[in-house]
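Encode chain A's predicted structure.
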Amino acid sequence: MLSLHRPLPGAFCWLDLAAADAAVAKAFYARAFEWTFRDEKANGGHYARLRAGGQDVGSLYQLRRAQLEHGVPSH
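Encoded structure for chain A:
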């Protein structure tokens, strides 16, 4: 359910991460912030929905091979 409210200063609105190594990124965020993940399919691939405190806060997905070969960093 979408909840529209005015976020507090410093609160996450949404985070998207295109990761050079999605597995490493997921492990980092799990340790650093105790976030959990829900894998979902989209656009012929998949991504992980980031969850904090029972709320969706963003998504994380693996950069494609062609992007990695051209030196695109995580962003």
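Strands lie at 15-19, 36-42, 45-52, 55-62.
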